[in-house]
Amino acid sequence: MEILDTIGGTPLISLSKISAGSGAALFAKAEFMNPSGSVKDRAAKAMLLDGIKSGRLTPDKIIVDATSGNTGIAYAMLGAAAGFRVRLYMPGNASFERKRLIRSYGAEIAETDPMEGSDGAFRAVREAVAAKPEAFFYPDQYNNPVNPLTHYQTTGREIWEQTGGRVTHFITGTGTSGTFMGVSRRLKEENPEIKVFAVQPDSPFHGIEGTKHMASTIKPGVWDEGRADGFIEISTEEAYDTARRLARVEGVFVGVSSGGNAAAALKLAKTVPAGSVIVTVLCDGGSRYLSDDFWGL
Predict the structure, then answer these.
(1) Do 119 and 218 sit in the same domain of this protein?
(2) More confident residue, 111 or 215
(3) 11 with 24, same domain?
(4) Which of these three, 109, 137, 165, is where a domain ends?
(5) Could you tell me the pLDDT band of residue 297, with boundaries at 50, 70 and 90?
(6) Whole-number Cα distances in Å, 42 to 5, 146, 149
(7) Is position 38 annotated as part of the catalytic site?
(8) Does 145 fall in a domain?
């Protein structure tokens, strides 16, 4: 077995303590248990394997992409394992831990203007590739259909099987939107009655790293707003508070976007029929945010 073989197949865990009294059963896909520590391992692996299969990724090419951190860490891990150079464009205010993890795998970072967020990183990598296209393999996670496809083939199937087909609602945040798009498509095919909800920050100026405020950002090409049955808004403070609660009540130490997903799932749980089965995603672990002061340590 190689490191690539350990990606996916993550457990579905119960969040029964923080959801007690809601009348719904709340479960979360523990994507922080992937080898580089996030849900992005799935798409990164699929896009790189697709590049190799198509002949676009060859040993002389440098893998480049824009990232807020997690896909970059996944690319760095996979690049190290497969012997490819990796250069990542990311906002300068991405967490210290994420940058250190990427560099620990031997990948390069090109930091972009923090005020421009992930959009600035996206513009920067496109400029670099346009200037010297022969030097790079650019998966373009925001627009690559392989991204949602792998979640359709793996994450969505796993959720359906792990709930024994009992899932009634799925809810998650949107960065590239690959997880939401792929999982929602798979679950709707399994049972059209399943409701799918997208989590959105309540403001363009938010601190939920890895989650896009779609109304004020460059929309990913794989995103289809019509796929969602509804949207639930979450404040940065709600995401922070729920991340802390998950650690201290459930013993599940996860990051801010996971806190946002769980907070939105708890809001949803108050509105659905008793006996509903809600599934969300715990995108990454909390250790890559330890330098953030919201933990109150």
Answers:
(1) no
(2) 111
(3) yes
(4) 137
(5) low
(6) 11, 10, 10
(7) no
(8) no
Judgement on whether residues 21 and 45 belong to the same structural domain of the protein: no
Is residue 221 domain-resident? yes
- Which of these is catalytic: 22, 29, 36, 40? 40
Based on the domain organization, do 106 and 204 belong to the same domain? no
* Together in a domain, 197 and 118: no
Query: Same domain, yes or no, for 33 and 44?
Result: no
Amino acid at 230: G
pLDDT at 203: 80
d(CA 291, CA 297): 10
**Partner residues linked to 29 by β-bridges:** 12, 281
Active site (annotated) includes residue 29: no
Assess whether 121 and 226 both reside in one domain: no
Assigned token pair, 122: 């996206």
What are 37-78's pLDDT values in tens digits?
999 999 999 999 999 999 999 999 999 999 988 999 999 999
Co-location of 177 and 263 in the same domain: yes
Catalytic choice (19, 95, 184, 257): 257
Dump pLDDT digits (tens) for 95-136. Answer: 889 899 999 999 999 999 998 888 899 999 999 999 999 999
121 within 8 A of 91, measured Cβ to Cβ: yes
Q: Which residues contact 132 (CB under 8 A, 6 or more apart)?
A: none
Contact call for residues 197 and 231 (beta carbons, < 8 A): yes
Q: pLDDT tens across 245-266, in order?
A: 999 999 999 999 999 999 999 9
The amino acid at residue 183 is: V
Domain that holds residue 227: 3-37+152-295
